[in-house]
Design goal:
This protein is an alpha/beta fold. It folds into two domains: 279 residues, 3-Layer(aba) Sandwich (Rossmann fold), CATH 3.40.50; 122 residues, no CATH class. The protein is built from 18 helices and 15 strands. Helix 4 packs across helix 5 and helix 5 crosses helix 16. The two termini are 41 Å apart. It binds adenosine-5'-triphosphate (ATP) and magnesium ion. Magnesium ion binds next to helix 1.
Length: 503
């Protein structure tokens, strides 16, 4: 709730208001706690308040329980009780301006990038190509560029590959086997929906920075399907973060951020992260602040987040943590030690005893120093808690000013209709020449295909699957296994892509 020009998040038992100062909201934040402790609702309360403060928000909806932000909440007995306990006189249920986005183009505006923007080296990793096939793909990209052919979608690429197959000799020893292997890989990715991530119109990141009637638009990336492939989820969120960073001007400290980005399930980003990537992300976290963007990570425990990043997160909300095992107890201790102690209570005990929707809070004061920790009850959200139905989602998508802007079907003939006739190949160009030029440009790469987090990906994908998909038929499970494995392969590829971007 936006109150007295502040992002009000909770209150202590003696009604002390605990709020994020809008001018300090770019000092980033962290929301942690056990499953079911209230993290998503806290995120929602913050997002609503930022919206009312005129600050646009981006967040990923992993469980579909944030979509209700587009509709007013209900004054249930539980909400009434909380409102009374907190003495919230001006509390009223209300809806917030929401834009739905979806990489699959099903549950929101279609968020995508192009094959050309990804590049041949990255795509070859996503496709799991051998070195020879990689060289062949590089030639296909080169041919497309030389002949000014569009390379937006998988279909565009397929056309170039067909042309290459028919003119092999003119482009050196591009073998039918290599071309066939690339086409087969494209088909596998296509079968599990990843072709939908590529095509025009690609995302214009400025569309995330919308303000409507003085209220910041809350951009919700529907990630329910995407999250079945956790690596793909982490990689695409990181890609969006990188887009935001690279395309935002330096603005210094503002009265309020230009945008706030919530990164749910943030541990996925940092699991087994190679040090060069961590270095790059740490750099982004440090620098993006002066570009007016606040980052809020959400995870189960602060120990999920590397220290370098943790030290940059000034606004903290710690929900309860369980302490059943010695490892759990260590986590509680570490979480407690991150706070400036309050003489009124023992931090460690409090973390174990907090109820649902209660949290320990420490936000940054006007001087940029963390306040002492407080025991708080979190506000209830003003918008609906939980999911929405398809008709409700459609209504929001159809009413959006972006409706239609991103809806061109990526694989329709439209994006290839204007294709120019492909010219004859340069007979002097051999595959060896092309490969040499390619290597000169890209080198052998700082990584090998084999160093992707394969085991991790498979483990996480199957864990995500087993929790989300209990009770399905064997056939459905087999289908999902195929999709998840294929998506995992794509995810590993994209993770490797980030290795390259962040090298
Ligand atoms: N501030 C709050 N006001 C009202 N109800 C709340 C609040 N916080 C939590 N709740 C209640 O507790 C439930 C669980 O909260 P929430 O979904 O935020 O947990 P979570 O930590 O995100 O769980 P998970 O890790 O499983 O995603 C909510 O559906 C809601 O009913
Ligand atoms: Mg949650």
């Amino acid at each position: 709730m936006y109150y007295n020009n502040n992002i009000l998040v909770g209150k202590t038992s003696d009604k002390k208001e605990l709020f994020i100062l809008p001018s300090m909201a770019n000092r980033h934040g962290l929301i942690t706690g056990a499953s079911g402790s209230g993290k998503t609702i806290t995120l929602k309360v913050m997002a609503e308040s930022f919206s009312d403060a005129g600050v646009p928000v981006f967040l990923a909806d992993v469980k579909g329980d944030l979509a209700g932000t587009a509709y007013p909440g209900e004054m249930s007995d539980k909400v009434k009780e909380r409102v009374e306990k907190l003495g919230l006189e001006n509390f009223e249920p209300k809806a917030f301006p929401v834009r739905f986005w979806d990489l699959y183009g099903e549950a929101g505006h279609h968020l995508r990038t192009t094959v050309e923007a990804i590049g041949s080296d990255v795509l070859s990793i996503i496709l799991g190509l051998s070195e020879v096939q990689e060289g062949c793909l590089a030639i296909a990209f080169k041919v497309a560029k030389e002949q000014s052919q569009p390379l937006n979608t998988f279909n565009d690429l397929r056309k170039i590959l067909e042309y290459l197959a028919n003119n092999r000799t003119e482009y050196g020893n591009t073998t039918t086997q290599s071309i066939g292997a690339i086409q087969r890989s494209l088909l596998i990715l296509e079968n599990q929906g990843a072709d939908k991530f590529f095509g025009q119109p690609m995302l214009n990141i400025n569309d995330f920075f919308q303000v409507e009637n003085g209220r910041g638009v809350i951009n919700i990336l529907d990630s329910v399907k995407l999250f079945e492939s956790p690596d793909l989820y982490a990689a695409f969120l990181l890609w969006i973060l990188n887009e935001l960073f690279s395309k935002s001007p330096e603005v210094g400290d503002l009265d309020k951020p230009r945008l706030v980005f919530f990164f749910d399930e943030a541990h996925l980003l940092f699991d087994n992260m190679p040090s060069y990537r961590l270095k790059r992300i740490t750099q982004i976290v440090k620098l993006i602040r002066s570009r007016g963007i606040g980052l809020y990570f959400i995870s189960q425990a602060p120990t999920d987040i590397p220290d370098e990043i943790l030290s940059q997160l000034g606004n903290r909300v710690q929900h309860t943590l369980r302490a059943y095992t010695p490892a759990d107890q260590k986590t509680v201790k570490a979480a407690a030690s991150a706070f400036r102690t309050n003489p009124a209570f023992d931090t460690e005990t409090a973390i174990r005893e907090l109820g649902t929707g209660e949290a320990l809070i420490s936000f940054q004061n006007a001087k940029g120093a963390p306040e002492i920790v407080e025991y708080a009850t979190i506000l209830p959200p003003q918008s609906r808690m939980g999911v929405i139905d398809n008709a409700e989602r459609e209504a929001i998508i159809n009413a959006s000013p972006l409706h239609g802007k991103y809806s061109a079907a990526p694989n329709s003939a439209t994006d290839t209709q204007n294709r120019k006739e492909i010219k004859a190949a340069d007979p002097n160009q051999t595959q060896a020449d092309n490969l040499a030029k390619y290597k000169e440009q890209y080198g052998n790469g700082p990584f090998k295909k084999s160093d992707g987090p394969i085991a991790k990906s498979q483990k996480k994908a199957s864990a995500a699957k087993s929790t989300a998909k209990k009770g399905k038929s064997t056939a459905a499970k087999a289908g999902e296994r195929f999709v998840t494995n294929a998506a995992g392969a794509a995810g590993r590829g994209i993770i490797s892509w980030f290795k390259k971007i962040f090298k």
